[in-house]
Amino acid sequence: MSVYRVKSCWIHCFLQMKEKSFSCDRATMQWSLFLLLLMGQCVFITCQLYEYHFIKEQMSWDEARAYCRENYTDLAKVFDLTDMRRLQDSAQSQTEAWIGLYSEPGRDNRRWHWSLPGEEYTENKTCWGTGEPNDRPYPENCVRKKDKWADAPCTHTFPFICYDETMKDNKTFHLIGEMKTWTQAQSYCRQHHTDLASGLDQIYSEEFKELLNSKASKVNLWIGLFRDTWRWSDGSNFSFRYWDMDSFNDGLNNRTCATTLLERSGRWSSAGCDQRKPFFCYDVKLDQTSGLICS
């Protein structure tokens, strides 16, 4: 068994009586704290220490979850690509292993998520076009934008807009004219920028609107909104997905538990939950770096 430590920090900012959450490294946390103090806000900082544990013994998904809950916290959850890389580094062999993601198949069990980790989806019916989302033809699990939003099959191809947190070429958003499926567009954005444009603050920002008006006002574009039936074992609402589309089967044919394919860059696939595989657990310990700071 090997252990790999992943340190993540959450800043809980109470702004106009509404809580928002961010995931950050220490440098980002300090910069965010500085900005929040300048705005005169109270900030509660809590740092948590993640430990990933690779268990070689082969078990079914349910047995693995019971083992993790008895000995650690739960089956491993993954917040973003950085977590995924650290999870890979903790493995002792290049094999296939369970993680804590499972599916509850069914049309009514789907939930909307933004592709960008940490961006929470809030229902806003004014964003959708008339009669949308209509889920026809079923399933329509990804979202395109023209003037308004509409759901569409994720296998359709459209241009798309990437978000870039590093301001590459002095731009936050980049319009990509290539026709790609939603998953291909997501992979492109994550490789070349940060992610597909995600969240109302991005989609309705002035820069985003100017980009649409200048180049793509009459073109359907993928944005980073999708829905699925997948859940994390510990109840976390993390939206990060890392599927290997060559082997992924979206909760069909009783393949309702997720594995990480370590020999395929850690990409995820689905498998029958009764199959026996090694697995990853995670453990969380509260760091002493916590407290309430007010300006």
UniProtKB/TrEMBL annotation:
Q: Where in this chain does the record put each C-type lectin domain?
A: 52-163, 168-282
UniProt xrefs under SUPFAM superfamilies: C-type lectin-like
Pfam families, A to Z: Lectin_C
- Upper lineage: Eukaryota, Metazoa, Chordata, Craniata, Vertebrata
Q: What is this protein called?
A: C-type lectin domain-containing protein
Query: Which SMART domains does the annotation name?
Result: CLECT
Q: What transmembrane ranges does the database entry give?
A: 31-50
Q: Which Gene3D superfamilies match?
A: Mannose-Binding Protein A, subunit A
Keyword terms: Membrane, Transmembrane, Transmembrane helix
Q: Does the keyword Membrane apply?
A: yes
User: What start and end residues bound the annotated signal peptide?
Assistant: none
